[in-house]
Amino acid sequence: MNPIYIPATSADQWAQFLAEPVKHWRTGYSARALAHSWQEADGFPAEVRAALASCPALASLQLLIAIPEHQVPLPGGSRPSQNDIWVLARSKAGLVSIAVEGKVSEPFGPTVEEWLAESSPGKSTRLAFLCEQLGIRGAPGPAVRYQLLHRTASAVLEAKRFCAPTALMLVHSFSQSHRWFDDYRAFAALLGCSVAVNQISHAGVRGGVDLYIGWVCGNEEYLSK
Fold first, then answer.
1. Alpha carbon distances (Å) from 60 to 25, 46, 49, 164
2. What is the pLDDT of residue 24?
């Protein structure tokens, strides 16, 4: 992965980094809504900033860089974890690694059981690695969404790469009915924490990093951008 990044001057420039730009860069879809929301914000979007402000450990965060479609390599296969946005921020306590997953109505991909249906040594290696990074003992439940595992682990991995003591996995959902929140809540239970919409929750120390997870409801005006 080339470490050189070019600053974006408009949300439309984000489309080039998508795996399938023609399919995913559409009005009302998460990629486009997320891009416009973050590109037009002065730092964090207002709803994200409000959620962070309610969490004492993250209340004073300053956004340093935000990288669209940031890829984090994982063992056990050739496909990395591709974050919709990865953010490096700074708090009073130090740097914070933030992996952002954008959503509208689409689910969090296959469950662990569905993902493992076509078993391979690589998948077993990857799942074991993700569980190790997240401090999950034994196999996660079959109904847990695989995407939430690797997205959260990528926040932890990048925290360690940048010597950041804190990581956050943030779901920025533009669904006004909070579709798929139950799947997020089931994942949070696996980490031993309770969650709510527009709330940041502490998930303990995972992989040597202080981990938080959160769900923020995005501004619906971006669904028509």
1. 33, 14, 9, 15
2. 82
